[in-house]
Amino acid sequence: MRSMPESDVAAHLAKLVSFPTISASSNLALNAYVENVCAAFGARARTFPNKEGDKANLLLSIGPETPGGVIFSGHSDIVPTEGQAWTGDPWTLREKDGRLIGRGATDMKGFLACCLAALPAITAKPLARPIHLAFSYDEEVGCSGVGSMAEWIGASGLKPRLAIIGEATDMDLVAAHKGGLIGWTTVTGKPGHSSQPDRYVNAVMIAAELIASINQIRQEMRDGPRFEGLDPPYSTIQVNQIAGGLHGNIVAESCRFFWEMRIIPGESDQVVLERMQARARELEPAMKAVDPATGIAIDIQARIPGLRPNDDPAIEKELLSLLGRARSRAVPYGTEAGIFQNAGVPAVVIGPGDIKDAHQPDESIALAALMDCVGFLTRVGETCR
Ligand SMILES: [Zn+2]
User: Degrees (nearest 5) of the Cα angle 30, 23, 168?
Assistant: First the structure.
């Protein structure tokens, strides 16, 4: 007897949820399961492992080995459950009131399960162009895993015409989001008795200068370029964490602060970073004149490129028609879509579920939302016939 798509998607999701693939853990067992499912549809597997070899991106291509296909992409890593009030085992999928509960149900193993559940219908007739499943690792720690796979596929002879990243959008078409750049700035000063401040270098006071210039940038951003549809429609930058100094009467030896910038599509985070670096270079000579061992270090922690609307409006039109929606929207959170776009593959974000359910205890998704997504992916797949 042929299985129903509902039970397929729930069964795949139950299996995917059972692998505790928090970002710090290996995703290889999950990949083996996915690869095994796809082998039944004649998929060719390529893997892009990390340096340690304990995690990998998985690219599965079904249909002919040609360009012009479509990528369905999502990450298989999830956020931890420690400290959250789960009412059941996060790794055992359960159902309540039409919703499936388990870590990753929304973010974003639900979408991965939809991809697997759509394959029987998509491959029911031969494909003229390939469908690729591109499952990444380390998305939740700054989208740092997917790059090797996105760059390979963008530069290969397999270059697809479209990548759909299935982060939760309630099946809306998301055509744009901000990019993000975050990092630590560490000021190393020279400590001494605070009665003689000019003999030493006060790291807290230098940090204050740097933060003042970040605040200046923030004010300029508020009056700068806008991208309507985002809230707020301008870029932002701020410092949300700071630590420094040892005692009220010792010149502070060190101070570090964590900054983040969120840049609207089409604007450059690099320009802002270079401004911060230039301000540091301005302050350093006076510090080093007191002691060459002092200085300012800026360390980037993560960089997520923004997503700008595709140059070709026909892509959006086609997808809106397949979705039965009137218009696209922009979202305030980052995804891997900009990484595919920068690799030369037109990209959008469309996925089941509500992003508010991501990262929550008792994370859940409606089975009906998954079925909508399976239907949409099937229609997209049919365009490859
Ligand atoms: Zn996600």
Answer: 80
What b/e sequence results for 289-322 when a residue is b if at least 16 CB atoms lie within 10 Å of its CB, and e otherwise? ebeeebbbeeeeeebbbbbbbbeeeebbeebbeb
Number of domains making up the chain: 2
pLDDT at 5: 66
One domain for residues 164 and 200 = no
CATH, residue 372: 3.40.630.10
* 83 has pLDDT over 60: yes
* CA–centroid distance, residue 107 to ligand 1 (Å): 4
pLDDT tens-digit readout, 324-382: 999 999 998 889 999 999 999 999 999 999 999 999 999 999 999 999 999 999 999 99
162 and 183 fall within a common domain: no
Query: Can 77 be counted among the known catalytic residues?
Result: yes
Centre of ligand 1 to C-alpha 337, Å, is 11
Q: What's the pTM value of the predicted model, to 2 decimals?
A: 0.90
Kindly give the distance from the C-alpha atom of residue 166 to the centroid of ligand 1, in angstroms, as a whole number: 8
Centre of ligand 1 from the C-alpha of residue 210, in Å: 33
Same domain? For 9 and 132 the reply is yes
The single residue listed with the structure tokens 């991106």 is 57
Exactly one of 77, 253, 362, 363 is catalytic; name it.
77
CA torsion angle 257 233 336 29 (round to 10) = 70
Does the active-site annotation cover 139? yes
Question: Which residues constitute the domain of residue 102?
Answer: 5-177+307-382
